[in-house]
Phosphoribosyltransferase (Streptomyces tirandamycinicus), 251 residues
Amino acid sequence: MLPAVCAGCGRARTPLCEECAEGLAGPPSRARPCPEPADLPVVYAAARYEGAVRSVLLAHKERGALALARPLGAALARAVGAASLHGGGGREPLLLVPVPSARRSVRARGHDPVRRIAVAAALALRRSGTYARAVPVLRHSRRVADQSGLTARERLDNMAGALEVAPGGVRSLDAHAAVLVDDVMTTGASLAEAARALRAACPGDVRGFTRTSAAVIAAPPLPWETGRNRQGRSDVAGGGRGKGTNGRTRW
């Protein structure tokens, strides 16, 4: 019953104004955390995690603004296109493998934001002529701590060995090109662990995993671009839940 306001800037009568939508529409670029985890695949990001982009992502993730999944999915689709080319794309279908959220985060929010955006991205790719589908084959194999406030090293330790491919998942991935997807990359710990889990589950001769790539909607500016601390510690007020806290964390 209330009038819509832009999730990015608060402008009235629109869930996402043209100006804020433009922040999601730029060309994808390589994204690298600092320090960069050894197992991190090549990552492409559609935007920087700041300003209106950050507000839009948080509105979708934490405040249930589900209509934003479509523009966020379109942004992710562009990053997926760039990542798939790096990973030896060209085979279809193109599989989007979302990094899973912790079960407690999904229960608390009432939805899985990364999975929802991955589905929207696959739809956007199909509209553009690339057959793609989301395949949520990764799951948590153990409980992980809340990552809010952890250093880069602590996040890597927290995520080490925490993900696995669900039974039957390898069969879904066999002989197809796959790109790991997430909403935000901060330290890269979640994506590095997801890539490790895929490599562990898939034999070396399974096509599509010789060069794993990844795509995200946004990544923070590098520390030397912002003057923020270089220790990889979160310094944004507010908490988060499980893996989903990546959406709230900046360098």
Notes: Residues 18-248 form one domain. The radius of gyration is 17 Å. Residues 205-210, 228-251 have pLDDT under 50 and may be disordered.
